[in-house]
Write a structure and sequence with these properties.
single chain; 269 residues; mainly alpha; Fumarate Reductase Cytochrome B subunit; two-stranded antiparallel ribbon; globular
Length: 269
């Protein structure tokens, strides 16, 4: 094959048109929707999902004889399962370099009064109350907490099983018991997660592209105000009094429902 100047110019022109089309598509999505996730966050979720999928599949091949016979190569399956499990914490740790990822991790790790009301409605009425959901509803926060905790427990018990000579028999027996039963629970929770994702195509599109429609934000996450300015910390509290963490979009009356105005403090009822 001969590389000529004409072919090089055509390739450059084609790449330029490709970049322009991608930029137009990105601009159209930004104009039509709301930015929910950055590119770093979507890649963290994608990498974590692939690693978790490999872990679940290889675990099924190790524990179910029909799958083990079909796949074969048990030693290779064990090695892939071990390394994919050890690598599970890597995407979230790399994601901490992103400011948006750290902000969303902070939102996922905090429960507000409206989150508890969301849970009560979900348990009593068997439905999700969108008017009590911020950027993430209480169910998504619980799933994130369960994922982080289960990954840590599975990694710890897996290391004990991986290096059996470094721990006594009692530890190895307990680690095997916890690892096996927690794996079944993780599989059930992931099935529920996938079920909810299938029922919500706009949420899946948000994880793929980073953008969601404005009508979806108003219908599913009413308390989320993505265009609201960030609140400035109240320095009048003093250096020793921390500011209560507030999820964007929560009305001010709900935030300070338990605080009395300064002028009325100390007055008799």
């Amino acid at each position: 094959m001969t590389w000529t100047g004409g072919s090089a110019s055509r390739t450059a022109a084609m790449m330029t048109r490709l970049h322009e089309s991608m930029a137009r598509a990105h601009a159209s999505r930004a104009a039509a929707g709301v930015r929910r996730f950055t590119r770093a966050e979507t890649w963290v979720h994608r990498a974590l999902a692939w690693l978790m999928g490999v872990c679940v599949f290889t675990a099924a091949c190790l524990y179910f004889p029909p799958l083990a016979e079909i796949v074969g190569r048990r030693r290779l399956v064990v090695t892939v399962h071990e390394w994919s499990g050890i690598l599970l914490p890597v995407p979230p740790l790399l994601g901490l370099a992103s400011r948006a990822f750290r902000a969303d991790a902070g939102r996922l790790g905090r429960f507000f009064p409206h989150d508890w009301r969301w849970l009560r409605v979900a348990l009593r009425r068997r439905r999700r109350e969108s008017t009590l959901a911020g950027k993430f509803n209480a169910g998504q926060k619980l799933y994130a907490a369960f994922t982080v905790g289960s990954v840590l427990v599975m990694a710890g018990t897996g290391l004990i099983m991986w290096f059996p000579r470094l721990s006594p028999l009692f530890w190895r027996t307990g680690a095997t018991f916890v690892h096996d039963w927690l794996a079944l629970l993780i599989a059930a929770v992931i099935a529920g997660h996938v079920r909810f994702a299938v029922m919500d195509p706009e949420s899946r599109r948000g994880l793929r592209t980073g953008y969601v429609p404005r009508w979806w934000v108003g219908a599913e996450h009413t308390l989320w105000r993505p265009d609201a300015p960030k609140s400035v910390p109240d320095k009048s509290n003093g250096p020793d009094k921390p500011v209560e963490p507030v999820e964007p979009g929560v009305p001010e009356t709900r935030r300070r429902g338990r605080e009395a105005p300064k002028g009325e403090q100390g007055k008799a009822p």
